[in-house]
């Protein structure tokens, strides 16, 4: 029996394009003891995956040329060989971009679809939610009455960060790329304000106006000029969790900009790059808290769901032009 | 009775010059109850004082125009009015650049000159030593076998940082601006290696060669291109205590350079600006440790002593051209 997978055809220089990906038909191997056959239901596309397309040391190993792209997948068990998992079970794991997937049982986590839409396990009840939770709580250390600015605020992580900051009594300003996103942040997600960076000529001034007491925590998903503007409004003893730098991921040269160190010295600022796996020993605690907040409806969420396995490359590219609101997911 | 003081005549644009300072003769006021008359012996000149010449919010308030410059001073009590301090006692405090000084007793700390040269209380047994101690221990968190790079290594803070890192079992590379300084760091102070940034054409390569296992801690006193070169060799989970940015203090525009955030995200790097006063509740512990190391000769020190109260402005400027080895002090 055959299936279709998507491999990395060539490492992109700058923005990925049609030459970056290749669809391949492959033979599905027989199941070995302890393996299951999966049908992919939802595939996660995330900004960090762009970094894995480079042949460069980073926190996750580079994808290999001519090998499938890997990412978060929610899948249904279709067949099993000597496993506790049974036909019909839903699982999640880091899996190849393939319509059908053979995987060892131990690489999978069974999920409970009665509690939330299964795709949520790729986002708010998965790495995205934990990234927001640990980055904000452990690095940002939000205190009642502080001002929090989130860039990429309408993205999968940003939406969760803003809501958790509100739960902690902070004033929250979101930066996003359309008026619709800003309205959604303020309406559905309870942000205190928002700035559309695409239509705001003087971001530094706009942030100063939106944050009359300055910025205590800047949760940074995007980097670049948006961050320059926020940092020029930063308070003494501010904390800057660095979650991502999506505005720079497709740069082919090292980007330049105003140096941040002088401000960090004069204002005693902390800045920390992090990956969520650093907190893996605390995942159960974090996940329990996220589930509780979702149940209590203190934490709401939204997804952009693209239909069709063949849309995966396009969905990936669309992340970099802000094509998603909340989590970008492809439904097979 | 009259004395001479040095006031801030004008806020410098860029490098301070002759117009920045003005010498004035003033009348010494009568002593009030609880006050002492002091004769200044040693005056501290420090890079951070440049920042106080600007009219800009920073961790220490700006100096006022037509008011004396303030800094660390070691002085001898010449007269006292109802104080525990007596004629002949040596004290230290944040005091004006004035030959004779009237001060409230409560603003002064009595020092023990039997234990170390009195000027050491402006440096290794004062704020400089504590800055090195807390910045390295609390932010850098040195671990046995790690590689530590110190910029401004032959400066008052850098010399102490390198030696404390050695005490913690680290490999230490110092960056300084002359071959004599490098030799001194390796010879007298036990650094494992050193790089003269003024004569090294490719600093990135030189650091890679000096640090074959990468850089785990970068204690940054200087900023600018030296820091760019170190950061391009930074390890995963590295820590960067930001103590100073002396290479940029006289810039009139916001300096630009390669953005650090992308590397900080991919390598989970922590960077923290700090001032020593953050740790003031732990000063007794830190001071006791520094004294112990000095007594055991695990911690050595050196000073550049300029003679003459009238040399204070010149000594201050000389900091920015690397005119000091170790602590720069003016002896009245």
Ordered list of secondary-structure elements with their pairings:
Two copies of one chain form a homodimer.
Chain A: E1 2-8, E2 21-27, E3 35-44, H1 48-52, E4 70-81, E5 90-96, E6 100-104, E7 109-110, H2 127-140, E8 147-151, H3 156-167, E9 171-176, H4 179-187, E10 193-196, H5 203-210, E11 215-219, H6 224-231, E12 234-242, E13 256-258, H7 261-266, E14 270-273, H8 283-295, E15 303-307, H9 312-318, E16 327-331
Parallel strand pairs in A: 8-9, 8-11, 9-10, 11-12, 12-14, 15-16
Antiparallel strand pairs in A: 1-2, 3-4, 3-6, 3-16, 4-5, 5-7
Span from first to last CA of chain A? 18 Å
- What class would the helix/strand composition of chain A place it in? alpha/beta
Low-confidence runs of chain A: none
CATH class category name of the largest domain in chain A: Alpha Beta
Keywords (chains A, B): Oxidoreductase
Organism (chains A, B): Dyadobacter psychrotolerans
Domain Enoyl reductase (ER) (chains A, B): 17-330
Protein name (chains A, B): NADP-dependent oxidoreductase
């Amino acid at each position: 029996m055959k299936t279709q997978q998507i491999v990395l055809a060539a490492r992109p220089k700058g923005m990925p394009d049609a030459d970056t990906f290749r669809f391949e038909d492959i033979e599905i191997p027989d199941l070995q003891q302890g393996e299951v056959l999966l049908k992919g239901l939802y595939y996660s596309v995330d900004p960090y995956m762009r970094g894995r397309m480079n042949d460069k040391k980073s926190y996750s190993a580079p994808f290999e040329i001519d090998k499938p792209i890997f990412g978060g997948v929610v899948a249904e068990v279709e067949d099993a060989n000597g496993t506790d998992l049974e036909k019909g079970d839903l699982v999640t794991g880091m899996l190849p971009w393939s319509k059908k997937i053979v995987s060892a049982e131990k690489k999978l986590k069974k999920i409970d679809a009665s509690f939330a839409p299964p795709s949520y396990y790729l986002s708010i009840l998965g790495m995205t939610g934990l990234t927001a939770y640990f980055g904000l709580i452990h690095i940002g250390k939000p205190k009642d009455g502080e001002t929090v600015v989130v860039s990429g605020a309408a993205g999968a992580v940003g939406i969760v960060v803003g809501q958790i900051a509100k739960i902690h009594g902070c004033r929250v300003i979101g930066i996003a790329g359309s008026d619709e996103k800003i309205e959604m942040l303020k309406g559905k997600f309870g942000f205190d304000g928002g700035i559309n960076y695409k239509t705001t000529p003087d971001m530094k001034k706009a942030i100063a106006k939106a944050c009359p007491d300055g910025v205590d925590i800047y949760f940074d998903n995007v980097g670049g000029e948006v961050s320059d503007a926020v940092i020029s409004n930063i308070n003494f003893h501010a904390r800057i969790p660095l979650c991502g730098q999506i505005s720079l991921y497709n740069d082919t040269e090292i980007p330049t900009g105003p140096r941040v160190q002088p401000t960090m010295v004069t204002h005693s600022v902390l800045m920390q790059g992090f990956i969520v796996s650093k907190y893996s020993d605390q995942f159960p605690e974090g996940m329990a808290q996220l589930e509780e907040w979702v149940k209590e409806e203190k934490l709401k969420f939204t997804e952009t769901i693209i239909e069709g396995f063949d849309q995966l490359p396009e969905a990936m590219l669309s992340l970099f032009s802000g094509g998603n609101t909340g989590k970008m997911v492809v439904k097979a």
